[in-house]
Amino acid sequence: MGQRTQIAATMLVSLLGWAGPAAAQPARVVSAEVLVVLAREEAGTIDPALASVPALRRPPFNAFRSMAVLSRPTVQLRLNTPADVPLPNGRRVRLMLQQVMPDGRFRVRVSINRPNLADYLPLLQVVASPGDPFFVAGQNHQGGTLVIGVRVGQRPNEPAAAPPARGAKRPPRRR
Amino acid sequence: MAVAHLEDERLQQFFDGELPPEEESKVRQVIEASAEERARLEALERLRSLLRIAAEDAASDLDSDGLYGRIRHGIDHPGGKAIEGGLRVVGGAPGPVEGWKVWIPTAAGLAVAAAVLLAVLRPWEGAPVVRSPQGDERVEVEATTTTVIEPPLGSEIEEVDFGENTGTVFAVQGEAGEPIAVVWIDDAPM
After folding, report:
1. ipTM of this predicted complex?
2. Cβ of B174: how many Cβ atoms within 10 Å?
3. Within a domain: residue A98?
Protein backbone atom coordinates (compact mmCIF):
# COMPACT_ATOMS: atom_id res chain seq x y z
CA MET A 1 0.00 0.00 0.00
CA GLY A 2 2.73 2.39 0.97
CA GLN A 3 4.67 1.71 -2.19
CA ARG A 4 1.61 2.15 -4.38
CA THR A 5 0.70 5.34 -2.62
CA GLN A 6 4.20 6.66 -3.19
CA ILE A 7 4.03 5.81 -6.86
CA ALA A 8 0.63 7.45 -7.25
CA ALA A 9 1.79 10.52 -5.35
CA THR A 10 4.90 10.75 -7.47
CA MET A 11 2.82 10.57 -10.61
CA LEU A 12 0.48 13.29 -9.40
CA VAL A 13 3.29 15.59 -8.37
CA SER A 14 5.05 15.02 -11.68
CA LEU A 15 1.84 15.68 -13.54
CA LEU A 16 1.22 18.88 -11.64
CA GLY A 17 4.76 20.06 -12.13
CA TRP A 18 4.61 19.28 -15.81
CA ALA A 19 1.20 20.84 -16.34
CA GLY A 20 2.24 24.19 -14.90
CA PRO A 21 4.63 25.45 -17.53
CA ALA A 22 2.73 23.62 -20.22
CA ALA A 23 -0.45 25.52 -19.50
CA ALA A 24 -1.79 27.10 -22.65
CA GLN A 25 -0.70 30.67 -22.96
CA PRO A 26 -3.04 33.07 -24.77
CA ALA A 27 -1.88 34.33 -28.11
CA ARG A 28 -0.10 37.67 -27.85
CA VAL A 29 -0.43 38.56 -31.52
CA VAL A 30 -3.81 38.30 -33.16
CA SER A 31 -4.83 39.00 -36.69
CA ALA A 32 -7.74 41.38 -37.23
CA GLU A 33 -9.61 42.10 -40.43
CA VAL A 34 -11.20 45.49 -40.99
CA LEU A 35 -13.97 45.54 -43.55
CA VAL A 36 -14.80 49.00 -44.89
CA VAL A 37 -18.06 49.10 -46.80
CA LEU A 38 -19.82 51.99 -48.49
CA ALA A 39 -23.56 51.38 -48.28
CA ARG A 40 -26.21 53.30 -50.15
CA GLU A 41 -29.96 53.24 -50.15
CA GLU A 42 -30.08 53.64 -53.91
CA ALA A 43 -30.56 50.48 -55.88
CA GLY A 44 -27.37 48.86 -56.98
CA THR A 45 -25.31 45.79 -56.37
CA ILE A 46 -24.23 44.08 -53.22
CA ASP A 47 -20.55 43.23 -53.32
CA PRO A 48 -20.24 39.43 -53.60
CA ALA A 49 -17.49 39.55 -51.00
CA LEU A 50 -20.18 40.35 -48.45
CA ALA A 51 -21.95 37.05 -48.98
CA SER A 52 -20.03 35.66 -46.03
CA VAL A 53 -21.26 38.43 -43.71
CA PRO A 54 -24.88 37.50 -43.02
CA ALA A 55 -25.27 40.23 -40.41
CA LEU A 56 -25.24 42.81 -43.20
CA ARG A 57 -28.35 41.26 -44.68
CA ARG A 58 -30.36 41.86 -41.54
CA PRO A 59 -32.13 45.01 -40.38
CA PRO A 60 -31.20 47.80 -40.37
CA PHE A 61 -28.46 46.99 -42.88
CA ASN A 62 -30.95 45.50 -45.32
CA ALA A 63 -32.26 49.03 -45.89
CA PHE A 64 -29.18 49.56 -48.02
CA ARG A 65 -29.67 48.33 -51.53
CA SER A 66 -26.09 48.69 -52.65
CA MET A 67 -22.90 47.88 -50.82
CA ALA A 68 -19.35 48.14 -52.06
CA VAL A 69 -16.26 46.94 -50.23
CA LEU A 70 -13.83 49.84 -50.26
CA SER A 71 -11.03 48.10 -48.42
CA ARG A 72 -10.41 45.01 -46.39
CA PRO A 73 -7.04 45.36 -44.67
CA THR A 74 -5.68 42.92 -42.13
CA VAL A 75 -3.64 44.14 -39.18
CA GLN A 76 -1.72 42.31 -36.50
CA LEU A 77 -2.86 43.26 -33.03
CA ARG A 78 -0.48 43.08 -30.11
CA LEU A 79 -1.53 43.50 -26.54
CA ASN A 80 -1.92 47.15 -25.57
CA THR A 81 -0.40 48.32 -28.86
CA PRO A 82 -2.58 50.47 -31.09
CA ALA A 83 -2.92 49.66 -34.76
CA ASP A 84 -4.34 52.25 -37.15
CA VAL A 85 -6.34 51.61 -40.28
CA PRO A 86 -7.04 54.56 -42.59
CA LEU A 87 -10.60 55.22 -43.66
CA PRO A 88 -11.62 56.67 -47.02
CA ASN A 89 -12.95 59.84 -45.35
CA GLY A 90 -9.56 60.78 -43.93
CA ARG A 91 -10.26 59.50 -40.50
CA ARG A 92 -8.59 56.43 -39.09
CA VAL A 93 -9.87 53.65 -36.96
CA ARG A 94 -7.56 52.65 -34.15
CA LEU A 95 -7.72 49.14 -32.74
CA MET A 96 -6.04 47.99 -29.58
CA LEU A 97 -6.13 44.47 -28.22
CA GLN A 98 -6.66 44.98 -24.54
CA GLN A 99 -6.99 41.43 -23.34
CA VAL A 100 -7.18 37.84 -24.46
CA MET A 101 -9.73 36.56 -22.02
CA PRO A 102 -9.37 33.16 -20.38
CA ASP A 103 -12.28 31.82 -22.44
CA GLY A 104 -10.55 32.82 -25.66
CA ARG A 105 -12.54 35.94 -26.44
CA PHE A 106 -10.85 39.22 -27.21
CA ARG A 107 -11.40 42.53 -25.47
CA VAL A 108 -10.69 45.27 -28.00
CA ARG A 109 -10.70 49.03 -27.74
CA VAL A 110 -11.65 50.99 -30.81
CA SER A 111 -11.58 54.67 -31.56
CA ILE A 112 -12.10 56.73 -34.69
CA ASN A 113 -10.41 60.04 -35.15
CA ARG A 114 -8.71 62.31 -37.57
CA PRO A 115 -5.07 63.22 -36.87
CA ASN A 116 -4.76 66.38 -34.80
CA LEU A 117 -8.51 66.73 -34.40
CA ALA A 118 -10.90 65.84 -31.64
CA ASP A 119 -11.90 62.21 -31.54
CA TYR A 120 -14.89 61.35 -33.64
CA LEU A 121 -15.59 58.20 -31.67
CA PRO A 122 -13.45 58.47 -28.55
CA LEU A 123 -13.97 55.04 -27.16
CA LEU A 124 -15.59 51.77 -27.97
CA GLN A 125 -14.81 48.68 -25.94
CA VAL A 126 -15.94 45.37 -27.36
CA VAL A 127 -15.66 41.74 -26.37
CA ALA A 128 -15.75 39.43 -29.36
CA SER A 129 -15.36 35.75 -29.94
CA PRO A 130 -12.62 34.76 -32.36
CA GLY A 131 -13.78 35.39 -35.89
CA ASP A 132 -17.08 37.01 -34.93
CA PRO A 133 -17.44 40.57 -36.16
CA PHE A 134 -18.69 43.80 -34.70
CA PHE A 135 -19.70 46.86 -36.68
CA VAL A 136 -19.32 50.60 -36.44
CA ALA A 137 -21.62 52.32 -38.90
CA GLY A 138 -23.08 55.72 -39.61
CA GLN A 139 -20.34 57.94 -40.99
CA ASN A 140 -21.50 59.84 -44.05
CA HIS A 141 -19.28 59.39 -47.08
CA GLN A 142 -19.85 60.19 -50.74
CA GLY A 143 -23.60 60.17 -50.42
CA GLY A 144 -23.60 56.90 -48.60
CA THR A 145 -22.86 55.46 -45.21
CA LEU A 146 -19.67 53.82 -44.09
CA VAL A 147 -20.08 50.45 -42.42
CA ILE A 148 -16.93 49.23 -40.74
CA GLY A 149 -16.75 45.62 -39.68
CA VAL A 150 -13.98 44.26 -37.50
CA ARG A 151 -13.17 40.60 -37.03
CA VAL A 152 -10.50 39.64 -34.53
CA GLY A 153 -8.89 36.23 -34.76
CA GLN A 154 -10.43 33.24 -36.44
CA ARG A 155 -13.13 30.88 -35.46
CA PRO A 156 -11.92 27.46 -34.31
CA ASN A 157 -11.47 25.03 -37.21
CA GLU A 158 -11.42 27.90 -39.64
CA PRO A 159 -8.35 27.42 -41.83
CA ALA A 160 -5.80 30.16 -41.51
CA ALA A 161 -5.43 31.81 -44.85
CA ALA A 162 -4.50 35.06 -46.40
CA PRO A 163 -7.41 37.49 -46.62
CA PRO A 164 -9.37 36.87 -49.77
CA ALA A 165 -8.99 39.23 -52.64
CA ARG A 166 -11.68 41.81 -53.08
CA GLY A 167 -14.66 40.25 -54.71
CA ALA A 168 -13.61 36.71 -53.88
CA LYS A 169 -16.20 34.43 -52.37
CA ARG A 170 -15.46 32.71 -49.13
CA PRO A 171 -17.11 29.52 -47.95
CA PRO A 172 -19.73 29.99 -45.26
CA ARG A 173 -18.53 29.33 -41.77
CA ARG A 174 -20.30 26.71 -39.77
CA ARG A 175 -19.90 25.52 -36.22
CA MET B 1 0.87 47.46 3.43
CA ALA B 2 -2.10 45.22 3.77
CA VAL B 3 -3.27 43.65 0.52
CA ALA B 4 -6.93 42.83 0.03
CA HIS B 5 -7.71 39.13 -0.12
CA LEU B 6 -9.84 38.05 -3.04
CA GLU B 7 -12.79 35.82 -2.40
CA ASP B 8 -12.74 32.52 -4.24
CA GLU B 9 -15.84 33.39 -6.23
CA ARG B 10 -14.44 36.74 -7.29
CA LEU B 11 -11.15 35.20 -8.34
CA GLN B 12 -13.01 32.52 -10.28
CA GLN B 13 -15.13 35.18 -12.02
CA PHE B 14 -11.95 37.03 -12.94
CA PHE B 15 -10.45 33.80 -14.23
CA ASP B 16 -13.57 33.16 -16.30
CA GLY B 17 -13.57 36.71 -17.63
CA GLU B 18 -16.99 37.40 -16.16
CA LEU B 19 -16.20 40.61 -14.29
CA PRO B 20 -17.07 44.01 -15.73
CA PRO B 21 -14.02 46.04 -16.81
CA GLU B 22 -13.85 48.25 -13.74
CA GLU B 23 -14.16 45.34 -11.39
CA GLU B 24 -11.70 43.34 -13.40
CA SER B 25 -9.21 46.18 -13.26
CA LYS B 26 -9.47 46.29 -9.47
CA VAL B 27 -9.02 42.55 -9.17
CA ARG B 28 -6.07 42.67 -11.54
CA GLN B 29 -4.43 45.29 -9.36
CA VAL B 30 -4.90 43.14 -6.29
CA ILE B 31 -3.43 40.15 -8.11
CA GLU B 32 -0.48 42.11 -9.38
CA ALA B 33 0.21 43.41 -5.91
CA SER B 34 0.04 40.06 -4.21
CA ALA B 35 2.23 37.04 -4.85
CA GLU B 36 -0.31 34.94 -3.01
CA GLU B 37 -3.14 36.01 -5.31
CA ARG B 38 -0.95 35.42 -8.37
CA ALA B 39 -0.21 31.97 -7.09
CA ARG B 40 -3.93 31.30 -6.64
CA LEU B 41 -4.63 32.44 -10.18
CA GLU B 42 -1.79 30.31 -11.53
CA ALA B 43 -3.15 27.38 -9.59
CA LEU B 44 -6.50 27.79 -11.32
CA GLU B 45 -4.75 27.81 -14.69
CA ARG B 46 -2.76 24.71 -13.80
CA LEU B 47 -5.84 22.95 -12.55
CA ARG B 48 -7.74 23.63 -15.74
CA SER B 49 -4.84 22.41 -17.84
CA LEU B 50 -4.36 19.38 -15.65
CA LEU B 51 -8.01 18.49 -15.94
CA ARG B 52 -7.79 18.59 -19.70
CA ILE B 53 -4.55 16.61 -19.75
CA ALA B 54 -5.82 14.01 -17.32
CA ALA B 55 -8.99 13.51 -19.33
CA GLU B 56 -7.06 13.20 -22.59
CA ASP B 57 -4.53 10.82 -21.09
CA ALA B 58 -7.19 8.67 -19.52
CA ALA B 59 -9.04 8.46 -22.81
CA SER B 60 -6.19 7.92 -25.21
CA ASP B 61 -2.98 6.85 -23.54
CA LEU B 62 -4.20 4.08 -21.30
CA ASP B 63 -3.28 0.77 -22.87
CA SER B 64 -6.22 -1.24 -21.63
CA ASP B 65 -5.19 -4.41 -23.45
CA GLY B 66 -1.72 -4.23 -22.01
CA LEU B 67 -3.10 -3.48 -18.59
CA TYR B 68 -5.42 -6.46 -18.77
CA GLY B 69 -2.56 -8.67 -19.87
CA ARG B 70 -0.44 -7.53 -16.97
CA ILE B 71 -3.25 -8.11 -14.53
CA ARG B 72 -3.73 -11.60 -15.92
CA HIS B 73 -0.05 -12.18 -15.61
CA GLY B 74 -0.13 -11.04 -12.02
CA ILE B 75 -3.13 -13.24 -11.25
CA ASP B 76 -1.48 -16.26 -12.78
CA HIS B 77 1.80 -15.57 -11.09
CA PRO B 78 2.94 -18.70 -9.21
CA GLY B 79 2.84 -18.50 -5.48
CA GLY B 80 -0.57 -16.97 -5.37
CA LYS B 81 -3.44 -18.25 -3.33
CA ALA B 82 -6.25 -19.85 -5.36
CA ILE B 83 -9.75 -18.50 -5.05
CA GLU B 84 -12.92 -19.35 -6.85
CA GLY B 85 -12.83 -19.43 -10.61
CA GLY B 86 -9.14 -20.21 -10.65
CA LEU B 87 -8.09 -16.65 -9.88
CA ARG B 88 -5.20 -16.15 -7.56
CA VAL B 89 -4.33 -13.41 -5.17
CA VAL B 90 -0.65 -12.64 -5.13
CA GLY B 91 0.60 -12.79 -1.61
CA GLY B 92 3.83 -12.84 0.36
CA ALA B 93 6.42 -10.18 0.89
CA PRO B 94 6.56 -7.43 -1.73
CA GLY B 95 9.10 -8.11 -4.45
CA PRO B 96 10.33 -5.96 -7.28
CA VAL B 97 7.65 -3.65 -8.67
CA GLU B 98 5.84 -5.41 -11.48
CA GLY B 99 4.31 -3.68 -14.46
CA TRP B 100 0.72 -3.83 -13.28
CA LYS B 101 1.71 -2.39 -9.95
CA VAL B 102 2.78 0.73 -11.81
CA TRP B 103 -0.17 0.87 -14.18
CA ILE B 104 -2.88 0.56 -11.58
CA PRO B 105 -1.55 3.35 -9.35
CA THR B 106 -0.98 5.44 -12.45
CA ALA B 107 -4.55 5.01 -13.61
CA ALA B 108 -5.77 5.53 -10.08
CA GLY B 109 -3.65 8.63 -9.75
CA LEU B 110 -5.06 10.09 -12.93
CA ALA B 111 -8.57 9.31 -11.81
CA VAL B 112 -7.95 10.92 -8.42
CA ALA B 113 -6.41 13.96 -10.06
CA ALA B 114 -9.39 14.34 -12.36
CA ALA B 115 -11.81 13.93 -9.46
CA VAL B 116 -9.97 16.49 -7.32
CA LEU B 117 -9.87 18.97 -10.15
CA LEU B 118 -13.52 18.53 -10.95
CA ALA B 119 -14.34 19.08 -7.30
CA VAL B 120 -12.25 22.25 -7.20
CA LEU B 121 -13.36 23.74 -10.49
CA ARG B 122 -16.99 22.70 -10.51
CA PRO B 123 -18.24 21.69 -7.10
CA TRP B 124 -20.86 18.97 -7.41
CA GLU B 125 -23.63 20.92 -5.84
CA GLY B 126 -26.78 18.97 -5.57
CA ALA B 127 -25.18 15.57 -6.15
CA PRO B 128 -27.52 13.10 -4.46
CA VAL B 129 -26.16 11.58 -1.28
CA VAL B 130 -27.55 8.16 -0.44
CA ARG B 131 -27.05 6.08 2.64
CA SER B 132 -26.42 2.40 2.31
CA PRO B 133 -28.09 -0.11 4.65
CA GLN B 134 -24.80 -0.25 6.54
CA GLY B 135 -24.97 3.48 7.09
CA ASP B 136 -22.18 4.44 4.68
CA GLU B 137 -22.67 7.72 2.91
CA ARG B 138 -22.05 7.55 -0.80
CA VAL B 139 -22.34 10.14 -3.50
CA GLU B 140 -24.07 8.96 -6.62
CA VAL B 141 -22.24 10.21 -9.67
CA GLU B 142 -23.66 9.58 -13.08
CA ALA B 143 -21.44 8.66 -15.99
CA THR B 144 -19.53 11.75 -16.95
CA THR B 145 -18.40 12.94 -20.34
CA THR B 146 -15.65 15.33 -21.28
CA THR B 147 -17.06 18.65 -22.39
CA VAL B 148 -15.05 21.19 -24.31
CA ILE B 149 -16.14 24.63 -23.25
CA GLU B 150 -16.15 27.10 -26.09
CA PRO B 151 -16.47 30.83 -25.66
CA PRO B 152 -19.89 32.27 -26.33
CA LEU B 153 -20.38 33.25 -29.90
CA GLY B 154 -20.80 36.76 -31.13
CA SER B 155 -19.69 40.12 -29.88
CA GLU B 156 -20.92 42.61 -27.33
CA ILE B 157 -20.31 46.22 -26.48
CA GLU B 158 -18.95 46.83 -23.02
CA GLU B 159 -18.43 50.56 -23.19
CA VAL B 160 -18.93 53.32 -25.69
CA ASP B 161 -18.24 57.04 -25.66
CA PHE B 162 -19.73 58.91 -28.60
CA GLY B 163 -17.96 62.14 -27.69
CA GLU B 164 -19.72 65.05 -29.32
CA ASN B 165 -21.86 62.76 -31.44
CA THR B 166 -24.84 60.69 -30.55
CA GLY B 167 -25.44 57.12 -31.44
CA THR B 168 -27.10 53.84 -30.77
CA VAL B 169 -25.85 50.45 -29.68
CA PHE B 170 -27.70 47.33 -30.72
CA ALA B 171 -27.13 43.82 -31.97
CA VAL B 172 -28.04 41.92 -35.09
CA GLN B 173 -28.14 38.19 -35.50
CA GLY B 174 -25.15 36.46 -36.95
CA GLU B 175 -24.99 33.31 -38.98
CA ALA B 176 -25.86 31.01 -36.09
CA GLY B 177 -28.15 33.45 -34.33
CA GLU B 178 -25.35 34.83 -32.20
CA PRO B 179 -25.50 38.53 -31.28
CA ILE B 180 -23.29 40.74 -33.41
CA ALA B 181 -22.67 44.12 -31.83
CA VAL B 182 -23.36 47.25 -33.84
CA VAL B 183 -22.55 50.83 -32.94
CA TRP B 184 -24.41 53.31 -35.11
CA ILE B 185 -23.20 56.89 -35.03
CA ASP B 186 -25.70 59.60 -35.91
CA ASP B 187 -23.38 61.45 -38.19
CA ALA B 188 -23.97 65.02 -39.28
CA PRO B 189 -23.34 65.58 -42.99
CA MET B 190 -19.72 66.51 -43.63
Report:
1. 0.75
2. 20
3. yes
Q: Which of B102, B180, B187 sits opposite A138 (nearest CB)?
A: B187
Q: Is the pLDDT of residue B163 over 60?
A: yes
CB contact under 8 Å between B156 and A7, yes or no, is: no
* Residue of chain A nearest B190, judged by CA positions: A140
Q: Confirm whether A175 is domain-assigned.
A: no
| B175, B178, B186: best to mutate for the A interface, most A CBs within 10 A | B175
- Collapsing DSSP states into helix, strand and coil, what is residue B71? helix
Domain extent, residue A83, equals 23-152
Asked, for residue A2, whether it belongs to a domain, the answer is no
- Residue A9 sits at the chain B interface (C-beta within 8 Å): yes
A110 with B160: CB under 8 angstroms? no
Residue A47 confidence (pLDDT) above 60: yes
Which CA distances in Å does A113 have to A39, A46, B131? 20, 28, 68
A18 assigned to some structural domain: no
Residues 6+ apart with CB under 8 A from A122: A111, A113, B161, B162, B163
Cβ of B112 within 8 Å of Cβ of A8? The answer is yes
Number of A to B CB contacts under 8 A, please give it: 176
Which residues in B26-136 belong to E strands, given as ranges? 81-82, 88-89, 129-131
pLDDT in tens, A68-108: 999 999 999 999 999 999 999 999 999 999 999 988 999 99
Closest approach of A76 to chain B, Cα-based (Å): 19
